Amino acid sequence: MTTPLDALVTALHDAASYNAAAEAPPEAVVWCDANREFEPLLPTLRERLPELLTYGEFDSGTRTGPAVWLRAAVAGAVPAVNIPEGTTAILYLPGVARETLKGADDCPPLLQPLVWFTVAGTVFGHVNGKDWTLRGFLTSERGPLKLSIADDNATRAALSHAALRFCTRPVEELRGQRWSADQLNALLAPDLAADMLDWIDGAFTEMGDPARFAAFANIAEKQLKFDPRKLSPQDAVRRLAKRAGRWAEVWARFAASTGFENVVTYLGLEEPGTLFDRSENRDSYPRLNAQDEKKLREALLSLADLSPEAARKQLAGLDEEHAWRRETVWARRGEAPLAQALSFLVKVAAARPLPGHEGNALAEAYVAAGADVDWAAMRALAAAPRELDREAIAAALRAVYLPWMEQGAVALQELIRVGKVKLAAPSEPGPDATTILFVDGLRMDLARELVRRLEAEGVKVSLGWMWSGFPTVTATCKPMVSPVASLLNGPPTTSDVLPLSPEGKPATKPVLFKLMEADGWETGNALLPDVKLWAETGRFDEEGHALGARLAERLSAGIRDAADRILQLVRSGRSLRIVTDHGWLLMPDGLPHAALDVGLVEPNGKRTRCALVKAKAQTSYLQVPWTWNPEVSVATATGARSFYAGYEYAHGGVSPQECILPVLEVASDGAKRAVNVGQTRWEGLRLRVEVTGGADLRIDLRLGSETSGPSLIKGGRVLDERGRTSFLVSDEHEREAACLVVLDDDGRVLAHRTLTVGED
């Protein structure tokens, strides 16, 4: 497509034409530009015209020099200047009018070496003998373009600033309208909101881009009633906070971003000037948000002095007061962590007690709703990583979460005491289990979140549950879910609650792996999907012991890593059974302490939530048979207490969180294909496409940047076995935005990419 710049290049070449039958070729084309109107085009013109030389201070890189140097260069006496054969040198003279050169007697001495070229060469200009102005070249009826541009000082100034942007657009796009200063300014600075924010932020300055700044200033003065040439960024921020008129558009752009740190700093210096500003635009002011966070922090800390019922009511009232802040720009920027955490705290506060009349009823209620309470508590902790805020979250959780957790643990312990719940015994995995993935410390709430993530990837997964063994520690419970559990047995006495192998060795990880391998199970990577495989992932328990309550901040990443490992196995053609050994309790500032005299406990027999009590010792703590030998009893801490003070993370005892374990079954045929648009290449109006994982899928090109636009290739195309295809697009859509979409058989979009028709 032709642009004004193309037309200018053609006109300069045409200026060097001559009648070979009657004329000698011109030695040079002299291009005078008294007002320097064409200067913004020079960098681009130099790339296209190697024969273009410029009058001015010597600069070999831009082929610029004084008149004597230009004369020598045209004569071929400057080795660094190579004028291509068959072309005529073009001498661009900024700030010089042709009248200056033609008046030889009055011509300044420094220009006199160029006077010869007005005779031996040709002068580029209008047919009326005058030099071209930029507007004249673009609009002249006797010129090549005949565009319509207003003739006033503001438009001339705007054209000068927008010259390069204007002259590189297709002529067809420029015709059919009259260009004014406003339109030209918008061409150079089309996004007022972004430019205003960049200017306030310091990323856009008058010194850095004078032409764009001039256009921006003119638009801002008209549309925002604000002149950045006269007012400061702080003045702009004051208007931004009030959001009157079109400043609302600038605020919307700021609110949708996470950058502009200097804008935030300026806003931090502002306070609402009127009662209206304080009520209507309260979310404009970070200082007010900080005050609200402080007020909420104090309110949460005060929950420590309330009963659980009063604390629940207080949280509900606080949520009514602060919920709106979760939708503000400060929440999106992480400056309202307590308001975010509050949404999870009210879910914890609304938790219902677990039923205590029957074991399965308690377990089903915990799986259906109770685990979500645990997850809400974890998310509340993760939402406020600063120590100052964590103290407030800890106070709230101790007020409403700890009593609920205590009630569930006491209820389950009583059911075990009266024989209504029997914890699991070792069993074989079943003949259908060929791949078992062990995830260490995968509590039920984590498992439910893992299911949500897998289903979002198109994986078919079902979530079930089982009772754990006892005590709920890795030594006892991991061997139980291994495929060789039936080969193990418990000794008559134990200090480490580890079962023994048939050879009498403690069932540590190496011993378990050796037994599994002898039974036909791979314990590393199995290439064939029908080979039995035991795999492991997850560090929830390890990190819990190391981090305490700060484990909450790591859970999301750990679930993501587990999902990645599952997807890897599923996409290799495997169906999975996902198991774990035990859950855990977590309470910031430590679980309540359960006193246990050291003299009552076997040597090395005391853990955070369980203890091996001496045979003749008297204790009120519930004692539960050891899974591997019911003749050995292990005491459990009452409720949600710990035998060691100050522990935030603990397991080994009896509670729904520790004892109700997830079991996930994952089908091998349910995962989405990993589909990505790879290479796209335009060859004229033919688009060649390669889609990773796209074999036999369908592809379409749709008009516009949305995936739902009208098709440009009716019916689409089917990708070959390599995920490749190509197709032609009508030239009527050249340079228009289009969205390339990859579709499955049901028409669902699996991948997409926005393109410009005909342009890479």
From TrEMBL:
Q: Which domain of life is it from?
A: Bacteria
Which NCBIfam families does the record associate with it?
BREX_PglZ_1_B
Which protein is depicted? BREX-1 system phosphatase PglZ type B
